[in-house]
Design brief:
The complex is a heterotetramer, with 2 copies of chain A (144 residues) and 2 copies of chain B (418 residues). Chain A has 144 residues and is mainly alpha-helical. Chain A has helices spanning 9-21, 26-39, 81-94, 99-104, 109-112, 115-118, 126-143, and strands at residues 61-68, 71-78. Chain A is built from 7 helices and 2 strands. The chains are: A mainly alpha (144), B alpha/beta (418). The complex binds pyridoxal-5'-phosphate (2 copies).
Chain lengths: 144, 418, 418, 144
């Protein structure tokens, strides 16, 4: 599979940053995220099990990882649309990369896109909880 | 001291009230702050902020047995605060006012002390069905640990039915304690606690009231009502954080043991024995939050200075505007506000939209509301809901803010469903 | 940010440190304040006072599940404070820091939680003989209520003998918990807690340290020491009142149940069941004292900014001056300060004069000291004393103040005995 | 006995106020109080029983009342000298008056002499505790 994967994580992240920073208006940025949420296939109800829930989000967010060949593929869902969009963006970013690549990668898009500021996290930051979960999956699949 | 009292018409008076709350001049996300999360915590008037600041700049010292001028000044402000609170809620004696860390702390302290002195295995504690977690979980812990039983009183929109249900529940369950909220932080519903207290007295059931919301919107008189316990937080009553009150009626002072142990609450300590001081001191171990008391004192004085009653009446007027305006927003429903008495709190939900998404977008428009379960999970589950968006008002809010909020809600729903 | 660090000689640096404490410019009874009651509560640097003020002016909001900008800001400052405290005391993980109301609250919470999960009838808790009431009475209550036994470790001037006694006491009594003060608030005596922790670890006895005084005068590293619990108050550490810390080592998080119940600490609540959140939240019910956390964060940053180590070294230098000067005052005696390690606290008594009279006259001369039993009655009784006058220093005190204090003491004795 | 009693309570209080306000210097005022304490006979050890202790003082203060004819006579002691002097002053003020007179009397000397400010009371003000105890005695002897 690695040959299919054309862009590195850093490159893909830059694209994500460019996409989000294109918008001058918060409204447009949110519209973009909401659209991402609406376009996301989500997970079938049967797959939305409690063990996939990301702790620390105010809405329920599920994140699932599967290994396809050498790389991980992430799928996600949420009962709220904005988290669903964000989770989808993050799932897309990390999908198609090996656990090693993921573990070696230090994401900066949260700060660079102002997402941290705009997504008013609670005490347990939902966004960072998702990112942490990604790392945990990568670790588990690497050692597995 | 009096603030804003000679000003009319009303909107100018509201303007004047607003001028005392510095946070109202804040912008968020580049927009003027519309703060409608007052039930979570109120904004603080300048007098309160300055009282805390002045305390630290000038009188800061420990209170217990301080034989110096700063200690004297600290003790004076601390005991003045106790007096002011006693007066505010109509306590018969100053020593009935115990300072705690907040409502949650007050209720926990009470539950613990009652569990050691009064409640026994099998005893029934009667709560209402719309209690805040802080008035459920302390009793749940007792039920798990020592086998007391929790029974929940249903709360109809009609006060008569509530009172009738109370009588029935008391007859049926013979509770050893009635512990109910003064007003719901989720729906704003005000319980008929005067009439409930009458029933409780008649059946000789001691009564505790969670006044976290109630004390903010009512002139209460605990002595006249004959309440045994009343709990509230300073931070929701325009005072500082980290301090709250537990009113303990005098007749309980000999029954109820201390709930925290240490410095300042003892009469004499040996290595293997201890005797306790009199109330209120026996209930206040450790260095108290004197700066908090100084701020709470300033809050009470501020409320008196603006003729608080007028603020309370205005809140009810604002509530009617809010209910009317919100009812007109397509796609949402309101919890309650059909009949009974309500404090200025309105919870809404949109069947097709997640409350979290709504709050996030409204925040972008400068509107601070709260979304979630509001620590009232059991009642929400009963209604079949996961959460609501809660709009909670204070006397410094305006009709324009309420309308702007309704617009923001409308727009958010459009964005999310469009 | 760095304050005062490039300034020499030392007295100019002290001058600079002093300039950060507004209360030092205060007069009492027409005389400049000489504040030597630091062990009761410290003065607060301007940064702390302003952090609290700024919090109320700008970011004031509730933290739990706030989906708006103010709630975000509040949550951030609250969690930043937790991180800063974790770093300050060397906690291995941020969630090991639990915010409480103060030392007394921390120890009570711990005693309660241990009594429900770990301690059983007949179990021995080993304390030291010079504990503050706040580390005696919570355990005494357990001894009365559930039959745990309290044994007290004698504290010799010589550290070797303390460690030896500890070993003997552990061998003889097989305690289930060692709960000792880091330093005595009466005499200033610092216990050899590093070595004691080593012994405790060797015998697998969990160890709680009352750091109310110790944390103010030492760089502590709880992880390295392997402590299980460490308790202290913000208000003695140059931070605001009404907030304190209980460090709970991670391995206890699954053992130790919550100690307060209510909002913010649950995972899910039904009418008849509840599950709890993870630490630290499961230990923090109710609205926390966010303004206090903001101030405590500022206090920690302030201490870093002045290179706190230099202040600590200077305190020791000042202590030597104080001990030497006070030894020369006729008619008084000092408690301890003969051999072991001491924090800058000196208790004196005049056999012929009541400590209360001394403190009253010294206050008239502008000197704030504390007179009484200092919440250490059992140890004082052992010494055959009713009380002492306690002089407790901070890095913003000067040699001149110490000398003025000794003079005031001398004059007061003359007035009273003359 | 009433004929022996030459001055009313108000008059005696005024004298006390004049005595204390004579001093410009706090030192002299305290010296006066200390001298009062030294001159006070106090109570024999056998009479210093716990039931006579005034709660709320930082030093131990004992206050004893006896009825001699129609009037009350107060005697006091303390283990500290300043409270002893103050208690003696107060005992002297109220001694020789009937319970009714005492109950009808509203003292003002605490404020007028600045004693309240200078005696740095603790949370339970020692001075007001003594005054309260006087009232309690008067009430008890009146109804007795
Ligand atoms: C050694 C010691 N432990 C406990 C305490 C109690 O601290 P707090 O009153 O802040 O709860 C103090 C302070 O008085 C102390 O010095
Ligand atoms: C009805 C009610 N009870 C109790 C509480 C708990 O108050 P606190 O968080 O200040 O302890 C609240 C506030 O959240 C409340 O609204």
């Amino acid at each position: 599979m690695p040959e299919v994967q054309r862009m590195g994580l850093a490159e893909k992240e830059q694209q994500l940053i460019d996409d989000l920073n294109m918008f001058d208006e918060w409204m447009d940025k949110y519209q973009f995220i909401i659209d991402m949420g609406k376009e996301s296939e989500g997970l079938p109800d049967a797959e939305k099990t409690d063990d996939l829930l990301v702790k620390g989000c105010q809405s329920r967010v599920w994140l699932k990882a599967e290994k396809v060949g050498d790389v991980l593929v992430f799928r996600s869902d949420s009962d709220a649309i904005i988290p669903k969009g964000i989770a989808a963006m993050i799932a897309r970013l990390y999908s198609g990369h090996t656990p090693e690549e993921i573990l070696a990668f230090r994401p900066t898009f949260v700060e660079k896109t102002g997402l941290a500021q705009h997504l008013t996290p609670t005490r347990a930051n939902g966004l960072s909880a998702i990112l942490k979960r990604i790392q945990q999956y990568a670790l588990a699949y690497k050692t597995a | 001291m009096s603030y804003c009292v000679d000003i009319s018409p009303l909107d100018k008076r509201v303007e004047c009230w607003r001028s005392h709350f510095p946070q109202l001049r804040r912008k968020v996300h580049g927009r003027p702050l519309v703060y409608l999360d007052n039930a979570a915590t109120s904004l603080k008037p300048r007098d309160v902020i300055e009282a805390v600041q002045q305390y630290y700049l000038r009188d800061n010292a420990n209170v217990h047995r301080a034989n110096h001028a700063l200690g004297h000044a600290s003790t004076t402000v601390y005991e003045d605060a106790r007096k002011a609170v006693a007066q505010l809620i109509g306590a018969a004696a100053t020593q009935e006012i115990i300072f705690t860390g907040g409502t949650t702390d007050s209720i926990n302290a009470l539950a613990t002390a009652l569990s050691k002195s009064y409640l026994q295995r099998g005893d029934v504690v009667l709560l209402s069905e719309l209690e805040h977690h802080s008035n459920i979980v302390p009793w749940l812990e007792l039920s798990q640990r020592m086998g007391i039983q929790l029974v929940y009183l249903p709360i109809a929109e009609d006060d008569d039915r509530v009172v009738k249900a109370l009588e029935e529940h008391i007859e049926r369950h013979r509770p050893r304690l009635l512990a109910v909220t003064h007003a719901s932080n989720l729906t704003g519903r005000v319980l008929p606690i005067e009439r409930m207290a009458e029933v409780a007295r008649q059946y000789e059931v001691p009564m505790m009231v969670d006044g976290a919301q109630g004390v903010v919107h009512h002139r209460i008189d605990v002595a006249k009502l004959g309440l045994d316990f009343y709990a509230f937080s300073s931070h929701k009553l325009y005072g500082p954080m980290g301090i709250g009150v537990l009113y303990i009626r005098k007749k309980w002072h000999d029954v109820l043991p201390p709930f925290r142990f240490g410095g300042g609450m003892i009469d004499e300590v040996d290595y293997q024995s201890v005797s306790y001081a009199q109330a209120p001191y026996k209930y206040e171990a450790g260095t108290p939050h004197v700066a908090g008391a100084a701020g709470l004192l300033a809050a009470v004085r501020f409320l008196e200075s603006i003729h608080w009653e007028e603020g309370l009446a205005y809140e009810q007027q604002l509530l009617r505007v809010a209910v009317d305006t919100l009812r007109k927003v397509d796609g949402i429903r309101l919890l309650g506000h059909e009949g009974g008495q309500y404090d200025p709190i309105v919870s809404v939900y949109a069947p097709k939209v997640h409350h979290y998404d709504l709050a996030v977008l409204m925040d972008q428009m400068g509107v601070a509301v709260r979304a979630g379960h509001h620590c009232v999970q059991p009642y929400l589950k009963k209604l079949g809901l996961k959460g609501t968006v809660r709009i909670s008002l204070a006397f410094y809010n305006t009709e324009e803010e309420v309308e702007y909020c309704a617009d923001a809600l409308k727009r958010s729903i459009q964005i999310l469903t469009g």
